[in-house]
Amino acid sequence: MPQTTNRFFDEIARLMNDAAGVAGGVRKEVETIFQTQAERILRNLDVVTREEFEAVKEMAAKARDENDRLTAKLNELEEKLSAALKNQGSAGNSKTD
Question: How far apart are CA 77 and CA 69, in angstroms?
Fold first, then answer.
C-alpha cells in the first residue's frame, strides 16, 4: 500500500508540474498577444516612441540655449550701437558749439 500511495502522489505532482508549465506558457502567449495589440493600437494613434520624444526634447533644449545665447549677444550689440550713436551725437554737437 505505501508504494501505491507514493506512486499516486508522484502522478499528482507530475500533473501539477505539467499544469504549471502549461499555465506559464499560456501566460506568456497572452502577454505577447496583448503587447502586439497594444503596439498596433499605438501605431494607429500615431504616438511617438520614447526615443523620439527624448530626441526632440534634447533638440528643444539646445535650441532654447542657443536662443538665450543669441538674445544676450543681440542685447550686447544693441548696447554698443546705442553707446556709439550717443558718442557720435555728442561729438557732433560739440563741433557745432
Answer: 12
